[in-house]
Amino acid sequence: MISLQHVSKRFGSDGAPAVADLSMEIEEGETVVLVGPSGCGKTTTMKMINRLIEPTSGSIVVNGTDVLRQDPVQLRRGIGYVIQSIGLLPHRTIAENMATVPRLVGWDDARIHKRVEELTAILELDQELLHRYPGELSGGQRQRVGVARALAVDPPVMLMDEPFGAVDPIVRGRLQEQFLDIQERLKKTVVFVTHDIDEAIKIADRIAILNKGGVIEQYAPPEEILRDPANDFVERFVGSERGLKRLALIKVSEIEVEEGPVVGPSASVEEAIRTIEKHDLGWASVVEDGELLGWVDGAVLEGRREVGEATPRRFSAYVTADSSLRQALDSIVTSRTQVAVVVSEGQRYLGILTLERISREIVS
Amino acid sequence: MDFALDTFRWLTDPTNHSGPNGIPVRLWEHVQVSFLALFLATLLALPIGLLIGHTGRGEFFAVSVANIGRALPSFGILGIVFPLTLGVLPGFGYYPTLIALFLLAIPPILTNAYVGVQNVDRETVEAARGMGMSGRQVLAKLEVPLAAPLIVAGLRTSAVAVVATATLGAVAAGPGLGRFIIDGFVTRNLAKAAGGAVLVAVLAILTELAFGLLERSLTPRTSSQGRRRTPRAGGIATPETA
């Protein structure tokens, strides 16, 4: 979808190049994050794609067309562009701002109106904001308007330059979640620049870690970069807690869970005690027709004949198949039982995860 | 008190309200030469100022013009231009006055246009370019609307200075209300001189007010409620007075 071949950029005639001989391929529908320390040429690389910066040499092909042979103004209208400072037009309302590119390419009012409505829904913006001015919105709201504006003519490619860098961590987290949601549905080809490796890990399909002069140190999926950093630079850049960061990327559904101690309501107390002792956790899950009812231990079963006569205790926390292993780990270390219970929708019992099982995943 | 009364009498004396040296004729001359000078200066300086602000090239030129323009006394320009045009252009004092006022009007218009455009947030401009606005569209849809208050402030500064300075034209036998002041002094008719001065002052104040209103009306809305934000102060350009 986007192909950069031997691209270089030198500002002025002397000095080191900002980007030297960079080549990379970006597939259709994937989110590629360019990450690296300041001065690594990540923003320069991105801006060469829509020719806000002209490459000194090399070729850039977007969607089969050499961008250097295209009229830059036409080129940019077909590529979504979001920057950290957003740059909404301060003297235009939010609706007018969203309509910027559609107006440039000559859509009629009815079509623009419809599209603004759609974008408002996609970005979950309040209808009321449409008639306000950018100065009257919060940072997070402005950022979503910036994304809506970039999506307006539904461009296949989006360039995003630290789009969530200027908002507080809580809002940033929410914007990242929303970005992932939208990207899941729209499947844009996204080039995303950030200096925040955690953001990169969270949203990227592939991460390109850049060093000074636009040298790509590693270009791989986040999981691979965390598991197998290509060199010292990448390892240092990724930072400590590589194991934990990797766990955040693996879903519970991707690994095999253990069955754990399970008894039915019709089981005899003797049978239940045997199950509890066998697993050595001090309790057993009560499952009826696949549905998790709770847990029982020796004390709860005291003086009963069948498990069903006792009222199972509720688990204080579960993880689901969609949870990350990091969340599962959190559940393990904060629960008294040192185990995470895994359920699917409708409280269907799937099994348990232990610390041992999760650490096996990191080591492997 | 007598003097003020004399001045009032002169202003209201019907014999001063007609004829080739009457107040209406001189007032019209004054307005005409001021307007033309301002118009021509705008025609030249505004596009250049916008272009310098938009491209970021030629800033040195803009600053130089502004400084030289402010250093040159209008009276001096008149003194230089008058002998040069004598016999070349018709109308004795008219063209020297026009040229002096034209030169006087250029710097505030040029610098305010340039500073106004340059002050527009560069990130917003970059976002606009990144979305596919051409240079001309960036100028028309973004830079000029946002710079409008400053541009008009420059015009206001120039206009007031021109109206006040047009008085000098009379020294070179030029048009305008200055005639009354000069003639008044020469013939020791101080009421006439003061009357002319009052007329110039009133005209300058009206000019100031008119451009103030224009400035307000051209300040873009950036809020969905309440009034328009008050325009920023003129910055570089400070009103010159004769």
Plain-language structure description:
The complex is a heterodimer of chains A (364) and B (242). Chain A has 364 residues and is of the alpha/beta class. Chain A folds into 2 domains: 2-245, P-loop containing nucleotide triphosphate hydrolases (Rossmann fold); 253-363, CBS-domain (Roll), CATH 3.10.580. Chain A has helices spanning 42-49, 72-77, 94-98, 100-104, 109-122, 139-151, 169-186, 197-203, 222-227, 232-238, 242-247, 269-279, 298-301, 325-334, 355-363, and strands at 2-9, 19-26, 31-35, 57-62, 65-66, 79-83, 157-161, 189-194, 206-211, 215-220, 262-263, 284-288, 291-296, 319-320, 339-344, 348-354. In chain A, strands 6-7-8-3-9-10 form a 6-stranded mixed beta sheet, sandwiched between helices. In chain A, strands 2-1-4-5 form a 4-stranded antiparallel beta sheet, with helices on one face. In chain A, strands 11-12-13 form a 3-stranded mixed beta sheet. In chain A, 38% of the residues are buried. With 242 residues, chain B is mainly α. Chain B has one domain (2-10, 24-218): Orthogonal Bundle (MetI-like fold), CATH 1.10.3720.10. Chain B is built from 9 helices and no strands. Chain B has helices spanning 2-12, 23-55, 59-71, 74-85, 94-119, 122-130, 135-165, 178-186, 190-218. In chain B, helix 3 (59-71) crosses helix 5 (94-119). The longest helix of chain B has 33 residues, at 23-55. Mean pLDDT of chain B is 85; it is low at 227-242. Chain A binds chain B through residues 50, 52, 73-78, 81, 83, 85-91, 93, 100-101, 104-105, 131-136, 146, 149-150, 159, and chain B through 121, 123-134, 137, 141-142, 145-146, 220-224.
